[in-house]
Design goal:
The longest helix has 19 residues. The protein is α/β, with parallel strands linked by helices and 358 residues long. Helix content is 47%, strand content 15%. It folds into two domains: 181 residues, Rossmann fold (3-Layer(aba) Sandwich), CATH 3.40.50; 154 residues, Rossmann fold.
Amino acid sequence: MKIVSIVGARPQFVKAAVVSRALKKAGIKELLVHTGQHYDYKMSDIFFKELGIPKPLHLSIGSGKHGEKTGEMLEKIEKVLEKQEPDYCLVYGDTNSTLAGALAAAKLNIKIAHVEAGLRSFNMNMPEEVNRKLTDHISSLLFCPTKTAVINLKNEGIKKGIFVTGDVMEDSLNLFLKIAEKKQKVFNLLKFKHKEYFLVTVHRAENTGDPVRLKSIFDAIIKYKGPEIFVIPLHPRTKKYLIAYGLYRWLINKSNLAFVDPVGYLDNLILMKNAKKILTDSGGMQKEAYMLKVPCITMRDETEWVETVKAGWNIIVGTDKKKIAGALKAENKNKTHPSCYGGGHASEHIVKLLKRYS
């Protein structure tokens, strides 16, 4: 049995790390293909090095306009699939790399397996929503992280090949948190204190590409009156837009903001675990915050991870200054923490299903 796995962005590297391990353990041959969607060392290569991911075939495409880059990926992935003739093309999540891999496989009548299938924000203005929805409708095996994802698929008329596997992110967290605690450097180096800071990540295009939304987020942060500081690993795109909008100089010397370079996955786990709260527009960090039992404030207008909101560990605030301020001040009164994501065995379930339906 042969699998070609397509990745291109940091969250996919983390997911692929545990699935690739499970595939190898099961004796399944895998070729990992990296489109190059995230290509900076700190945003890409360091993840492969830290997580022990097999060296991928690198297509070196880089980032750019959605249609242009998706088309370029489609062309190059098609050539790989023609040469490899795999039993399955395995894709992850909702990036342009995901859609390009799925489309290339579909055109060649190669079966598609989609990890993290069935997620919906119900906002078709998000490129991710378009990517995940199209991918689901042409996939043979749909590996859903939650029961909610199954319901979403069935509501769209998809009835075959649907399986609740749990979330591979929980597998990754369980495996790599132990390693991170032994190897981490950032927490000691930067001298942050346990539960005395808020961790902030902003990278989503709907926020970075809109000067009003981006300024509103940082307005709320700098006006917060409290002893905590805001630790901000600054995404290259976010920094570019802060400079372009004339906001970077305004923020760089604020005493309650600590800008740091982007960190690897292991250091980021440590920063998340020790934060008092996490403010993010990332999908993956919402889940990881929940798994680490750290309250999350999501700076988006909706979320795919509705379980975290229902459980009371995640507050959706968009970029509304008053809502952000209120969520920062709110006490965490959560006493229950239901298991929502499968308990850390998703990769094993995925591999068993791939073997069963090969």
